């Protein structure tokens, strides 16, 4: 299976030599689970898109420092591409910004949440049982770094995971779209460096709590296995 990564941001240049860029993080993570997966990267900020949607069997929208509501031409074009993929029932994953973009494009809502910044490790509760949620977990934890949240699901979407801070933490649309607010691709060392870079923006309490939370375990490999399971089901159907 070939997955097209729709790149919506780049890592800070000061971190890139050590941690790589976001597409590399996703490729490394997914291939650690399934080495046969293939990837093509499209930097949508630079208007890079496949000539035909069929070039890749599935697509993944990355995170971004931008908001899905920002008045940027590339964001609006990506929104239209999401609508096209949904119309064609083409398999699609969304992570963080991608999660929010898919919600907005399909008629839901994403905005700056009154809860403020979510940073570090957060735990989520699965609200449903699905065959692709294998291995099965009632709760899972991922690294997060976000201020925007999905506040209204699009029509036809099903809530997959939640917590008190982020009530819409993952959702599914029919059998071809799956999204997560958390970041399975990030590592703790990179997340800590990002928090240190933005310490003044976060404020002392959120920063300290975020750093402390990094002591908790996370399950990025399990969540990635879920996404791969989901995509295989979507592609085969």
Distance between the termini: 14 Å
- Uncertain ranges: none
Fraction in helix: 25-40%
Mean pLDDT: 96
- Tell me the strand percentage band: 25-35%
State the shape: globular
> How many runs of DSSP E, i.e. beta strands?
11
What is the N-to-C order of secondary-structure elements (H for helix, E for strand)?
EHHEEHEHEEEEEEEHHHH
Radius of gyration: 16 Å
> How many separate helices?
8
Largest sheet: 9 strands, mixed
Class by alpha and beta content: alpha/beta
**Order of strands side by side in the largest beta sheet?**
2-1-3-4-11-10-9-6-7
Task: Summarize the structure in words.
The protein has 237 residues and is of the alpha/beta class. Helix content is 35%, strand content 25%. It has helices at 13-19, 22-33, 73-87, 97-105, 188-197, 199-202, 204-213, 220-236; strands at residues 2-7, 38-43, 58-61, 92-95, 109-112, 118-126, 139-146, 148-152, 157-162, 170-173, 177-180. It has a nine-stranded mixed sheet with strand order 2-1-3-4-11-10-9-6-7, with helices on both faces. The protein has a two-stranded antiparallel sheet with strand order 5-8. The longest helix is centred in the C-terminal third of the chain and has 17 residues, at 220-236.
């Amino acid at each position: 299976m070939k997955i097209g990564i729709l790149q919506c941001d780049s890592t800070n240049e000061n971190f890139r030599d050590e941690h790589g860029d976001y597409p590399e993080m996703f490729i490394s993570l997914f291939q650690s689970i399934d080495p046969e997966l293939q990837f093509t990267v499209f930097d949508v900020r630079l208007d890079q898109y496949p000539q035909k949607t069929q070039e890749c069997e599935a697509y993944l929208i990355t995170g971004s420092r931008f908001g899905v509501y920002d008045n940027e031409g590339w964001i609006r074009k990506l929104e239209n591409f999401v609508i096209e993929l949904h119309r064609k029932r083409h398999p699609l994953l969304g992570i963080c910004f991608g999660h929010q973009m898919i919600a907005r494009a399909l008629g839901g809502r994403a905005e700056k949440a009154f809860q403020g910044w979510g940073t570090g490790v957060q735990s989520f509760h699965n609200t449903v049982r699905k065959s692709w949620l294998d291995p099965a977990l009632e709760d899972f934890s991922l690294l997060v770094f976000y201020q925007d949240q999905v506040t209204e699901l699009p029509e036809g979407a099903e809530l997959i995971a939640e917590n008190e801070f982020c009530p819409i933490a993952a959702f599914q649309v029919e059998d071809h779209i799956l999204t997560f607010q958390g970041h399975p691709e990030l590592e703790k060392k990179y997340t800590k460096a990002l928090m240190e870079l933005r310490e003044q923006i976060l404020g002392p309490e959120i920063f300290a709590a975020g750093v402390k939370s990094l002591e908790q375990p996370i399950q990025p490999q399990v969540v990635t296995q879920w996404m791969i399971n989901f995509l295989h089901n979507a592609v085969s159907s």
